Amino acid sequence: xxxxxxxxxxxxxxxxxxxSRNFSVGKATLDSVNLKGRxxxxxxxxxxxxxxxxxxxxxxxxxxxxxxxxxxPLLQGKSIAMIFxxxxxxxxxxxxxxxxxxxxxxxxxxxxxxxxGVNECTTDTARVLSGLADIVLAxxxxxxxxxxxxxxxxxxxxxxxxxxxxxxxxxADLLTLQExxxxxxxxxxxxIGDGNNVLHSFMMxxxxxxxxxxxxxxKGYEPDAAVTEEAQxxxxxxxxxxxFVSDPVEAARDSSVLVTDTWVSMGQEEEKKKRLKDFSGYQxxxxxxxxxxxxxxxxxCLPRKPEEVDDEVFYSQRxxxxxxxxxxxxTIMGLMVCILTDYRPQIPTLKL
Length: 352
Prior knowledge:
Elements: H1 2-19, H2 28-31, H3 48-67, E1 79-84, H4 90-101, E2 105-109, H5 122-132, E3 135-139, H6 143-152, E4 157-161, H7 167-181, E5 188-192, H8 197-203, E6 212-216, H9 225-238, E7 242-245, H10 248-252, E8 257-260, H11 272-278, H12 286-289, E9 297-300, H13 311-314, H14 321-340
Parallel strand pairs: 1-2, 1-3, 3-4, 5-6, 5-8, 6-7, 8-9
């Protein structure tokens, strides 16, 4: 009942708020945000108001389309080129279905269709796509491929995942937590696991929203040094706490949200045996959560392996993983609408 009650409370409160004719559409700084034409390679490039604006649009689309059954062809006549060097269930499904739902045409491109910098130089590919599509989403191995593509296109580029960042996942996580808790400021999120691209994106965004971050990684699996330096600067600037430890239980203490990810990503299969040994003791269990805040919840961007989190947590009412997965759709829709249109939400601004 824990998560169910929270969702019912949120839905009732949200519906009541939307029925009011006298709600505020937020501060002028948020309402005046315009992201049209911007690329989205890393949350490092987006300030707090811009992140909030994307989440606001995402929540608005979810409310109007899912809950009110409205038809919103906001991307009618537009097309997106989806470049996938790495496979994905959630990124492909959320982008394809979301873009289509908004009236646009998604074009899915595998390495057999387009291989950046191999059959054709990235510069030429970028110029060709600029004349054929309105926006590009690329899921790549190397972040430099995205930067090169973005440099040579005249249309916006979205990072669908790279070795350095996974910013569209964080948008879904933030919306999920906002829906569950009602607000995020002052809460603490704990990352337990590998210092990877998802963690890097949390590090580039949480402080801007007033969220504290604790990180527990085994020795040798710490996040990128340059990302860490920037995250420390952001924590100081926004007055939040950023803590790095090696003990998962110590990291989980008093935290509102426990998060982990796969320990063996695509391209790391040869390291599996060593990684599983090195991450021994990092599995999230109910015992890990016993020292967390009373209302703690769990997130995982999927796909999940049992060694990362046990079934008792993963399938519990504290787990928000399937709401999180669905919100990949609403947040990528919100992001694309922000980048391609001048759309303004109808619902009240979110309390973040």
